Amino acid sequence: MAAASLYSSHGTDEVTPEPEPQTAVAPVATSAPETKAPETMAPELVESCEDAPDEKRCEKEEAKYERCATSGFAGSRCLDSKALDRDQQAFVTDCRRADVTQPLPTPCAKLAKPVANAYRYCRFLGRSTLRCDRSARYAACIYRGGGRICTDAAPVYRACQTRSVNGAKIPRRFCLEGDVQYERCRHAYTVGSRSDMCRPATAVYIDCRPGAGVHVCEKAQDDYARRAIAGPPPAPAP
What we know:
Structural class: mainly alpha
Radius of gyration: 19 Å
Shape: elongated
Number of helices: 10
Strand order of the largest sheet: 1-2
Strand content: under 5%
Largest sheet: 2 strands, antiparallel
C-alpha cells in the first residue's frame, strides 16, 4: 500500500511501511488484559484549549508552542516545545503505520492534524506521555468510526502499554494495530454477544506481532476467537 504523507506543521514527511517478518508462529497463549468495567476515555479527549479543564494553563502552553513553532523551535527556551513536537509526530507516525494494516478509512494518514492535536493539547495540560498516547488513540479510533468500541478497546491498549514479549517492551505501533484489530474482531465475532472475548483475542495478536507479520497474527487472533466461541470440547463419554 502506498505511503501517505504525514501531517506536520512544517511540511510533510513520507513514511514507508517497514517490511514485516512472515515467520509462522503458534498462537501466543496469553491471559486477557481484562478490567472489571470498560474505561471511559471520552472525558480525556481535549481537542482545543476551550475544551480543557484548565483553560488558562492550556492557552499559556499553546502560545509558547506556537511561538516556538514559528521560530523553528530555535533556542533553549523552545526545548520543551521541540520535544513535544517530536513526540506528537512520532505518535502520528506509529498510528499511520498501524492504519496500513487495515482496509478501513485511515485517520492517521488523512486526519493526522486532529489526531496530533489530541496528543498535543493533552500534553499542554501537563499530563504524562502514556496518558496522552491513550487520548490520541481514542481520537484516532473515533475518527475511524469506531464509536462505542473505542471505549471498550481502552483496556486492551492500556495493558499493551505495560506488557512485554520475551523481555522486550511491545512497540507502540503494535499496540495501535491492536486497536484496529480489536474493532475488526468485534465486528466479525461478537455482534449480538455480551461476551467480549476480543480483548484476549487481540492480546494474542499483539503478542504475536513482534515476531510475525500481520496476516500470521490475524490468523492467530481468529483461531483464538473461534475457539472461544466454540467453547471447551465435550467431555469424553464414560
